[in-house]
């Protein structure tokens, strides 16, 4: 049973990697009005994308450093899945969980279009104020919780991939997927 599950997971990850490679190739082939192939535009996008990745990793890894767990590494394949799911929510911008449970997932919506990744992910880390390691419990006020925080700092999670989009409502949606997922069983996150 476990071998079948791992085999399915690797198949999904391979498909994600192939999809990301095909999307990258087709995006690179876009011709600009001046006859060039968008090198300046692509360089700007890559720089903004790299800055977003650095922001996301910084927020996550600072929280992980504070509790003594190893840093997360960025996974372009997982980010590709997060992007596909985020784009599927563009119409309603609803912070719902994706249907694929091979990943842990945090989703947040910021009102308006001018949100950076740090500001969007910071509330997940702020949930740590309500988490009590000694009792492995959460004392969050009604409507809040600790599960997004515990996913950020889950000791066995090693990879993260995220996507940030502006929805049709002009609000900003951030989806982060984690592998291996956290928040399972009764164990402590770290």
TrEMBL record:
| Residue stretches in coiled coil | none
Query: Which residues are the signal sequence here?
Result: 1-28
SMART domains cross-referenced by the UniProt entry: SCP (SM00198)
Domain SCP: start-end pairs: 51-186
A Pfam family this chain is assigned to: CAP
Which InterPro entries does this one have? Answer: CAP_dom, CAP_sf, CRISP-related
The cross-references to Gene3D superfamilies, in alphabetical order and at most eight, read: CAP
Q: Which UniProt keywords apply?
A: Signal
Q: Which GO terms describe its cellular component?
A: extracellular space
Q: Under which name does UniProt file this protein?
A: SCP domain-containing protein
This chain's source organism reads Setaria italica (Foxtail millet)
């Amino acid at each position: 049973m476990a071998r079948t599950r791992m085999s399915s997971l690797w198949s999904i990850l391979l498909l994600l990697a192939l999809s990301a490679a095909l999307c990258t190739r087709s995006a690179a082939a876009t011709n600009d009005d001046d006859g060039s192939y968008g090198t300046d535009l692509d360089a700007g996008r890559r720089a903004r994308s790299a800055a977003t990745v650095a922001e996301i990793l910084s927020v996550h890894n600072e929280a992980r450093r504070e509790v003594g767990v190893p840093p997360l590494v960025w996974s372009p394949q997982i980010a590709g899945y997060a992007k596909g799911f985020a784009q599927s929510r563009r119409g309603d911008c609803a912070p719902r969980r994706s249907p694929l449970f091979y990943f842990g997932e945090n989703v947040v919506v910021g009102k308006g279009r001018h949100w950076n990744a740090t500001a969007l992910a910071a509330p997940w880390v702020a949930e740590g104020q309500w988490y009590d390691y000694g009792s492995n419990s959460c004392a969050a006020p009604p409507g809040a919780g600790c599960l997004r925080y515990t996913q950020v700092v889950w000791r066995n999670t090693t990879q993260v991939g995220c996507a940030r989009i502006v929805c049709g409502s002009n609000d900003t949606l951030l989806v982060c997927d984690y592998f291996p997922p956290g928040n399972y069983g009764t164990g402590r996150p770290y």
